[in-house]
Amino acid sequence: MKKRIPIVAFLMSFFVWGLGQIYNANLKLGFKLFFLFFANNVFFITLIPFSWPSAVQKLYAIIFAIVWFGNAVHAFKEAKKIKKVKLTKLNNIWFYIGFVVLYLILLQLIQFLVVAYYLN
Q1: What distance in Å separates the CA atoms of residue 52 and residue 49, rounded to the nearest whole number?
Q2: In the predicted model, what is the mean pLDDT of residues 106-110?
Q3: Phi, psi of 85 (to 5 degrees)
Q4: In which element (H, E) is residue 34 found?
């Protein structure tokens, strides 16, 4: 049983949605937010820059920024509430690093496929 550090939860969720929630041992919400983040990035990479009008892109960016910051603030507030949490095997530094590396690899692969598609 360990106490969670709010600023760590905030930073983790700020850089990768859901990672701060996983840090807080809220795995269900953490994985949901992560997959939403991943799907959002795929959507942004593949559709928004190529086919949507500028006004829609700006509105999308504003909503995305609000949700992004709200996610990080939620992780911070939840970490402050937690006095002690029973950690799982997923709550270790190697899991967090692997999670971020996997995300970056998948995102780079999708970017490569999109660029290859549009260049042909």
Answers
A1: 7
A2: 84
A3: -130, 140
A4: helix 27-46
